[in-house]
């Protein structure tokens, strides 16, 4: 039973919902067009296809594209030792999708981290609150429009978010530069340096 | 002045004897904060426990005290610049993290099969030394938390020797940053193999002595056997990996099922527990240490000569004498350092058998030298998620035994 066969079985069960499996570096990726059906698809994958281990749930911010967020699920089975990746998109306006804690209980903490870092809500999650940042933190740090150096916080004695003491000083590199040339340490004149949220990265090589 | 009323508050002991169920019994539960700064929590882990006497009724672990934003940082630097950050993930086994990250990026580049054999063998030696180091600390601190203070210092003498070996190999005792994309930062120094063999002879003796301290020690067995039992299905459902999962009876080791580097050429066994309790997890770690020693012996015997870097100058830095004298290598060096390795657009996931569990890197690349998204699938983060399910029903003193048997590290959990 290879990963490709399992992917085709999953595709056959949910026609029209799952794309052709694409392969890169020996890994099979399936795109799911409707994030709302994710729990159903994963329940089938777990019960019928033997994907009993949810390795990881990741969120990717495609800043500038619509839909803005991509959620990536990595599934694995201890029986057939095959690995499959499922991807689905969530737009910024919607901002939520159903939880998978009913299928795999490990999804609990992964989804809390996605909520914490990206701001995507999971409907039906038993306890959706921040996990890495403190409760009440207003921003979502892994989004592309959140700057690397952070934003000022209302608990300054707990979380130190002043720029580092030499930040922007002479011969010091600044974080968040768009290319290595921008990150090169050089004499900086603070008043004329532009600061502000990092722009969306556009790779122009 | 208010009237004085006499209020009768029967104490808990009296209440339990008579078996009275008072309606305000819910208010009698105590909330105890096993705070982030605690010697037995293996880092900065906070657990809010609700206790009924000594029995835990609810447990709520809170993580994130060591969150440093590694994933955000990774989006702003080249692949090579991120290597020192991987040291600081599981800071008890930094070599293993270095190897895991390098293998993940090499998988993205598609060169993971082209690594020179010497590089692969040295990386396996690094991983297994890291496993030895991590388990020595895990068992030592676990025993110390349970009260056996001697074991801690006993295992740390061997860890000191591993640190010395790391220092002569990589230049740093602890945060090694040894691997590079496409190879290693430097080759083994002369005489290292003999030092390593000498160490291996000594560590086997030490492991055997540690076993005599703990394995049949009545007190240790009473504290750990039957405590923190995780059935097989629960372990899989909660995504446990590594010795924790193998202690619960799941026969799975990434080095055997999806061999990377030269693990398919090496003979070793994978210990699997049966009961899924703390004692089994401890036994699995002890046996894994012996298997690591066996693996390092085989690697040292089979170690080939040759280069340690991929010959492609666009991926691994060309040798310095050519960089300084020839134009093409100079250009490769310059582009490699300033813009980073040119990774193709695409995404990969690579899971590595770390001492703590499965350390996975998911790299989503849109081309170029920096990743668009780097997610670190941390074993300690996932292992800790089971605590709110596992702890209720146990006694307060079992918390320390269970935390120690999980052998997590907060640097990895919080990233």
Care to describe what's here?
The complex is a heterodimer of chains A (205) and B (415). Chain A is α/β, with parallel strands linked by helices. Chain A is 18% helix and 20% strand. Chain A has four helices and seven strands. In chain A, the strands form two sheets. A five-stranded mixed sheet of chain A has the order 1-2-5-4-3. Chain A has a two-stranded parallel sheet with strand order 6-7. In chain A, a hairpin with a 2-residue loop joins strand 1 and strand 2. Chain B is an alpha+beta fold and 415 residues long. Helices cover 47% and strands 13% of the residues of chain B. Chain B has a three-stranded antiparallel sheet. In chain B, a hairpin with a 4-residue loop joins strand 7 and strand 8. In chain B, helix 5 packs antiparallel against helix 17. Chain B starts with 11 loop residues before the first helix and ends with a helix. The mean pLDDT of chain B is 88. Chains A and B meet through strand 3 and helix 3 of A and helix 2, strand 6, strand 7, strand 8 and helix 15 of B.
